[in-house]
Sequence to fold (222 residues):
Amino acid sequence: MPRRVRLQIVVLALAVLSSLNVRQAFAELIFFSGDRSMSVKSHRFEGDQIIVSLRNGGEMTFDRGLVTAIRPDEVPYDEPAAQQTIRAAGERLIDNTVYEPLIKMASAAHNVDARLVKAVIQAESAYQPRARSRKGAIGLMQLMPKTAEQYKAPNPYDPRANIDAGTKYLRVLLDEFDLPRAIAAYNAGEEAVRRFGGVPPFPETQAYVAKVLSLLAPFELK
Fold:
């Protein structure tokens, strides 16, 4: 994978973590189509773009047409997703599990760094092959039924099929996006990443991206 160097991953992880730092503050609420919203420090318009300043540093840019309303955020609150992410920053990548041969096989077959596959599995299911989310995602890499069907995993509870399909899907995402956006697309879908032009402003997705990057931060990916 091009441009996957250790320093870049560390910087990206810190950048996402900083944007999710827990704090109580009065700010602005940006509302997007689809009943999504995010709390920001401030905003400004530049042509067809809206640039929002995140409450704890950094900026994000979106198409102006995606915004449906901007209102004062009058109630201070803690962000649970951020708290979870900051705790996750202390985690280490789990290595040498019983699934190591399957991960190595899928990694070699689809040219995806094995550490990235492990980080996604750890973030998705914590290596629970029978995991099933409330949204219907299944198995180690939490494949949605349509994704499992598309990438030839007829039984997504089968670790071999699940890891192979999930890794193949990661390869497709990495061919289109850089690393943070590929991770975001794995969580929120490609269309959400395309629509927002980057990591979507969904707390769950931002926390997910930060967690995976933090697990990868000590390593230099191939």
